[in-house]
Amino acid sequence: MRQTSLKMVHELAKADPRVVFIGSDLGPDTLTEMRDEFPNRFFMEGISEQNVIGMAAGMALDGFIPYINTIATFLTRRSYEQVAVDLCLHDLPVRLIASGGGVVYAPLGPTHLAIEDIAIMRALPNMTVVAVADAEEMRRLMWATLDWPHPIYIRLAKGGDPVVTSPEDGFTLGKAILKRAPGDVLLVSTGVMLGPCLDAADLLDARGINCGVLHMHTVKPIDADALVDLAGKVRLIVTVEEHILTGGLGSAVLETLSDRLPGRIPPLRRISLPDAFPVKYGSQQEHHRLNGLTAPAIAQAVEKAAVEAVVEAAP
Amino acid sequence: MTAASPSPLDLPPLDQAPPDLPPFEGPIGSDRSNAALDARSLHLRRLVVRALEGGGRGHIGSSMSPVEAIRVLYDDVMRYRPDDPRWVGRDRFILSKGHGCLALYAVLADKGFFPEAALDDFCRFDSFLGGHPEYGKVTGVEASTGALGHGLPIGVGMALAARMQGRDSRVFVLLGDGELGEGSVWEAALCAGKHRLGSLTALIDYNKLQSAGPVSAIQPLEPLAAKWEAFGFNAVEVDGHDVVDLRRVLTAAPADPSRPTAVICHTIKGRGVDFAEGRAEWHHKAKLSLSDLAGLHRALA
Question: Which SUPFAM superfamilies does the record associate with it (chain A) (predicted)?
Fold first, then answer.
């Protein structure tokens, strides 16, 4: 996914002279082809994220579309005021390509885990927050970024993630993709949680629970119309995200439904990371297993919630 | 180890008070700036006071010290078109110490970017002139500032943009001395030095006073010129209230055109208002009494 996003920056640079790339202190082989073809639009600026964001804002104020790549925590926590003031207040078309969303960097510990990135980016006016499901969808997203007039936070996953989207899905920023039509239950996921959710829906189908899957690749601006439409048709909604409980996809869905369907929200459960700094190392998969972010665990949680929902709905 | 054993580094014990500051003799900064204010400098300061009176508040000391630097940039150095403020070939000015905005508003109004009468609405609910300058609201303002340490990185980006677009635009960023405590300033300075941004000039409004007290006591900056030189800049020191000196420095070709320039403007906080000069309590006033305003008018009469 990261490789695809960076290769796409090079493709976009070929197509549009406004595109520039800025890295902080990335690997020496990063985007070497773009560096060789467009040396004037390739910048590697060292470990100085605050300066990198401000510099991108200065370029964008004069007509460029900077694509910045570094580790997610440094684009969010480290340079938050620069993102808020330089990018969001000025409402500039700068793209933050954030490596290691969620618990990708599990072995490196909590300083490197972007577990609240969606929450803090989503809190900023004018910001767009996107987490695609696989490298193919990344390609479609990147073309869509060229003419979007606002800043965009692009959350990357580990790389080599199974391809679960298809060209027929298309891609429009702010428009959710209904990967599987719902019956009684709707799963809403973002990022690479789409794969486990689709597998969980298969498992549930085998147990007689018809479960739809809505892929909310754009968490902000959220596709409120799709949510409202589907919420009126199902008896249970379950959100699934590789992000802490606070402020992420689940919060966004709850807020949206509460605003748009006051008093008529179906039972809703949130599957996420807990509101805590992870204490284990290991791998991303081990953290998924620990926190119920695998297909069998999601299926089990949905089944339990479905039973509770039926009980809640009983007169 | 015995209690009496001396420290190998010969450091004073931790409970010892810091050394006393040198005795205070006149406004801080006055040793480096003694240029008299001419009629134009007094006029611009009266515009600052007009806005202070309109808003009933403002950063007085911080707005009086950079008046001459901004005036000379707009009178004698920069290329711009008030009737076409987004003209792509213009030079850019960023007031990184956004709290000094009244000095910029005075000059922009004087140059016709917006009517002087707008100063009377400073900080009011429907005004476009707030307590910090905003891009997109105030014609002529190139970037929203107020949070410190943002202007130089943005200026670096603008200078690189000009280079990529083949423009010869110059970029001027005015920073406060207290602002130099922000690490992002030095990240940007490293970057500007690396890229040899000869089109970029950082001006430091070195009025020697930050909100909490003397810069030399809160977070000393000396040797300041040597710091900028070490980051790859040509560093020049001027009397920041001497328009002839400022004009000479800002219109001259830099000593090395492949290096950015740092102009250290030795100024006096509150310059032109005798009772506010060099006094930290006039950094900002959230409320101005009638006698305060009468004093301001009298001082600039």
Answer: Thiamin diphosphate-binding fold (THDP-binding), TK C-terminal domain-like
Sign of CA dihedral B232, B237, B238, B240: positive
Query: CB distance B147–A63 less than 8 Å?
Result: no
Same domain, A88 and A112: yes
* Domain residue limits at B156: 39-299
Does residue A271 contact residue A293 with C-beta atoms inside 8 Å? yes
Give residue for tokens 């577990």.
Answer: A115
Please list, in sequence order, all residues whose beta carbon lies within 8 angstroms of the beta carbon of residue B113, skipping any fewer than 6 positions away.
B82, B85, B138, B139, B140
Token pair listed for A170: 């298309």
From chain B, the residues in CB contact with A53 under 8 A are 153
Phi and psi at residue B94, in whole multiples of 5°?
Answer: -120, 125
What pLDDT tens digit does each residue of chain B (301 aa) get? 444 454 445 554 445 444 444 444 456 666 667 778 999 999 999 999 999 999 999 999 999 999 999 999 999 999 999 999 999 999 999 999 999 999 999 999 999 999 999 999 999 999 999 999 999 999 999 999 999 999 999 999 999 999 999 999 999 999 999 999 999 999 999 999 999 999 999 999 999 999 989 999 999 999 999 999 999 999 999 999 999 999 999 998 788 889 999 999 999 999 999 999 988 888 888 999 999 999 999 999 9
Contacts with A13 from chain B: Cβ below 8 Å: none
- Domain end call among A132, A155, A178: A155
Which chain B residue has the Cα nearest residue A88? Answer: B144
- Indicate whether A201 and A127 sit together in one domain: no
Report the number of distinct structural domains present in chain A: 2
Q: Are residues A45 and A97 in the same domain?
A: yes
Note whether B135 contacts A90, CB cutoff 8 Å: yes
| Amino acid sitting at position A232 | G
Across the interface, do A61 and B162 touch by the CB < 8 Å criterion?
A: no
Rounded to the nearest angstrom, the gap between the alpha carbon of residue A262 and the centroid of all alpha carbons in its chain is 27
Residue A59 to residue B183, Cβ atoms within 8 A? no
Which of A43, A55, A79, A88 to mutate against chain B (most B CBs within 10 Å)?
A55
Cβ atoms of residues A115 and A155 within 8 Å:
no
Structural domain for A118, as ranges: 2-155
> What is residue A184's DSSP assignment?
S
Residue B1 exposed, middle or buried by CB count within 10 Å (0-12, 13-18, 19+): exposed
pLDDT digit string, tens, across residues A160-184? 999 999 999 999 999 999 999 999 9
Contacts 24+ apart (CB under 8 A), B229-232: B231/B186, B231/B189, B231/B190, B231/B192, B231/B193, B232/B189, B232/B190, B232/B192, B232/B193, B232/B194, B232/B196, B232/B259, B232/B260
Strand locations in A176-247 (E):
177-180, 185-189, 211-215, 218-220, 236-244
Q: Do the Cβ atoms of A121 and A251 come closer than 8 Å?
A: no
The CATH number assigned to the domain holding A214 equals 3.40.50.920
Encoding tokens for residue B34? Answer: 């003694």
Asked if the Cβ–Cβ distance from B153 to A81 is below 8 Å, we say no
Name the burial class of residue A81, with classes exposed (0-12), middle (13-18) and buried (19+) by CB atoms within 10 angstroms of its CB.
middle
Residue type at A85? V
- The CATH number of whichever domain residue B292 belongs to comes to 3.40.50.970
Nearest by CB to B154, from A41, A43, A86: name it. A86
Pairing of strands A177-180, A211-215: antiparallel
